[in-house]
Write a structure and sequence with these properties.
Length: 299
């Protein structure tokens, strides 16, 4: 992992023109509020952006009106038969279907590399200064083309399944935060750099990101979050549409227990937060991923 961190830092000043790359914004029920689209433009993105919607979205016509031929629709029920939803419900108000659909969408478009983004990001920031020290000011990214190129270069130089940008909660504690101390953490949430050449299935109707990076990590797959980049997402339960309704209906205990079902040996339900405590998953990494023993323990 240390070599991977150095590799990513060494690439920070390099640029490669990736013509085989696109952004997929996964969205549902928010055709007039795809915040991420405008945030990408503000960050200087000039590449292809595809708006990924499902055939159960009643606002599909408005998406087509707003984004034209950049809207890609997939069959939600058909995709539901391709992975383990982890329950026997019929409630498909979840992003996991779009996440899994993206690999075939990319193939159909002739795209090898892509990044999946939610539709509610209002900032993309650097979390470091020029000397690569932690920056409390979170300098905004103004040339995100270069950032995506760097991430793709890093992706190509490693055998990882996916890499993500850090989120606000990852940086609680600033330079003392767990993510900043490690620089790369073995998880990936929200933003996923992927390739059709390294496919994997997101699993579980809800909490699909945690379900996937823990379950897949248990058999040796690598999912990373970088501390050098940061995105800001509107609070899930304050932004109408998307997965807000299902979170409000079911609550965080219900959400987190999906990961417990997939990884009962290493994931538990605990409380998190300071003033407003809530139930959340907790991952015991020593019980989750393969561990290489030091030679001194060899018999």
């Amino acid at each position: 992992m240390l070599n991977s961190v150095k590799s990513l830092k060494n690439l920070i000043h390099q640029t490669m023109k990736n013509k085989d790359f696109a952004v997929f914004i996964l969205t549902h029920g928010r055709p007039d509020n795809v915040i991420t689209y405008n945030t990408l433009k503000k960050a200087g993105y000039t590449g292809d952006i595809y708006i990924v919607i499902d055939n159960e979205d009643k606002s599909a016509d408005t998406y087509y009106k707003n984004f034209g031929d950049k809207v890609i629709m997939f069959d939600k029920k058909a995709v539901s038969k391709t992975f383990d939803e982890a329950d026997n419900f019929e409630d498909r108000r979840a992003i996991v279907y779009a996440r899994n659909a993206c690999f075939n969408i990319a193939k159909d478009l002739g795209i090898t590399y892509f990044i999946q983004l939610d539709d509610d990001y209002d900032r993309f920031d650097y979390s470091f200064k020029k000397d690569l020290q932690y920056n409390t000011a979170h300098k905004p990214i103004l040339n995100i083309n270069k950032v995506f190129n760097i991430l793709i270069n890093f992706y190509k130089e490693t055998n990882i399944k996916s890499i993500a940008m850090g989120q606000g909660g990852d940086f609680i504690g600033g330079h003392q935060s767990g993510l900043w101390k490690k620089q790369l953490k073995r998880k990936a949430m929200n933003s996923f750099i992927c390739s059709v050449n390294r496919p994997f299935k997101f699993i579980g109707r809800i909490n699909e990101d945690v379900n996937t990076y823990t379950r897949n990590a248990s058999v040796g797959d690598l999912f990373f979050t970088t501390a050098l980049l940061r995105l800001n997402q509107k609070e899930t339960q304050s932004n109408e549409g998307g997965m807000t309704d299902i979170y409000l209906d079911k609550g965080t205990y219900f959400k987190s227990f999906y990961t417990v079902m997939f990884m009962p040996s290493s994931v538990t339900i605990n409380t998190m937060g300071i003033s407003n405590r809530r139930l959340h998953h907790r991952v015991k990494w020593n019980n989750t991923v393969p561990v290489i023993l030091e030679e001194k323990y060899k018999k």
